[in-house]
Design goal:
Blueprint (H helix, E strand, L loop, with lengths): L7 H13 L8 E3 L3 H6 L2 E3 L5 H8 L15 H13 L4 E6 L1 H16 L5 E6 L15 H24 L1
Parallel strand pairs: 3-4
Antiparallel strand pairs: 1-2
Length: 164
């Protein structure tokens, strides 16, 4: 399985809610299609979302900011770090699976080498439950239930179509 899990938007809503409560966080931004958004300058200010909008986001499946499988080069990592520095970003939370977690490690290591004060946090969400050192990643359960439902409903749909 691949693609956004049904819990990515819910996680994003939680991140926005908690970030607003932190006095050191002035604004919350989202990058369109992950770090591709940093490379292209496609950023959305999420600070203005009200309670009702955050509740809708929390229960909307998929990934409102989009997803990405773009393989970042070392040059891209340098550009992303420059983007964060130019935009006074001190915290970066990246929602995703094992590729995302690898990218977080690469970003964190490069920031440490450059002595840049950026806190990089990987927020694990994966439908294939393939993250090391985790038992169950959020997102896996919803994907597994969806697959289980499809397997359960498919024969019933066939029976219904036969009756009609």
């Amino acid at each position: 399985m691949r693609g956004p899990t049904s819990v990515i938007n819910s996680t994003l809503a939680g991140i926005i809610t908690i970030a607003r409560q932190q006095i050191q966080v002035e604004r919350v931004y989202g990058l369109v299609h992950g770090l591709e958004g940093a490379l292209r300058g496609e950023v959305i200010d999420l600070s203005h979302l009200n309670h009702e909008e955050l509740e809708k986001l929390r229960y909307t499946p998929a990934a409102i900011l989009g997803g990405s499988r773009y393989p970042l080069t070392d040059e891209d990592i340098h550009k992303v770090i420059r983007f964060f520095k130019d935009n006074d970003c001190y915290y970066f939370l990246f929602i995703g699976g094992n590729g995302t977690m690898d990218t977080c490690l690469r970003l964190q290591n490069m920031c440490q080498q450059k002595n840049m004060p950026l806190e990089v946090v990987g927020v694990p969400k994966t439908i294939d439950n393939d993250l090391e050192v985790t038992d169950h990643a959020p997102g896996y359960g919803s994907a597994a239930l969806t697959q289980e439902f499809v397997e359960w409903i498919t024969p019933l749909v066939g029976e219904i179509m036969t009756v009609l």
